[in-house]
UniProtKB/TrEMBL annotation:
Residue span(s) of domain Transcription regulator PadR N-terminal: 14-82
SUPFAM superfamilies, alphabetized: Winged helix' DNA-binding domain
Short name of one Pfam family: PadR
Source organism: Levilactobacillus namurensis DSM 19117
Entries under Gene3D superfamilies matching the protein: Winged helix-like DNA-binding domain superfamily/Winged helix DNA-binding domain (1.10.10.10)
Entry-linked InterPro entries: Metal_resp_DNA-bind_regulator, Tscrpt_reg_PadR_N, WH-like_DNA-bd_sf, WH_DNA-bd_sf
Taxonomic lineage of the native organism: Bacteria, Bacillati, Bacillota, Bacilli, Lactobacillales
Protein name (Swiss-Prot/TrEMBL): Transcriptional regulator
């Protein structure tokens, strides 16, 4: 897919994945990558920003002698996801109408 994903939609994809379960960074990249071509170098700055905004929190768990940093959706992150989902519905409808040559109304 060659279409650039807008920042807010990428945020929504990450928040949506984390609404189902907590993920450590690499596993989250793999989850998102099943649907969008994204690299770890793209995802980690997004995770840092979402954490800074208070939409995610982190915790560490030991795994094979090392710690994995897990990302967890916060209550305000869930509120932001709900907002993005509503905006996505409107955006998706408008884009479908334009791309498919449909007339509004």
């Amino acid at each position: 897919m060659a279409i650039q994903v807008p920042t807010e939609l990428l945020d929504g994809c990450v928040l949506g994945a984390l609404s189902r379960q907590d993920f450590y960074g690499y596993a989250l990249t793999q989850e998102v990558r099943q649907h969008l071509p994204i690299s770890e170098s793209t995802l980690y700055p997004v995770l840092r920003r979402l954490k800074k905004d208070g939409w995610l929190t982190t915790y560490d768990e030991a795994y094979q002698g090392r710690n994995r940093r897990y990302y967890k959706l916060t209550r305000t992150g869930q509120q932001q996801l709900t907002k993005i989902q509503g905006e996505w519905g409107d955006f998706k409808q408008a884009m479908s109408e334009l791309l498919e040559g449909k007339q509004n109304g």
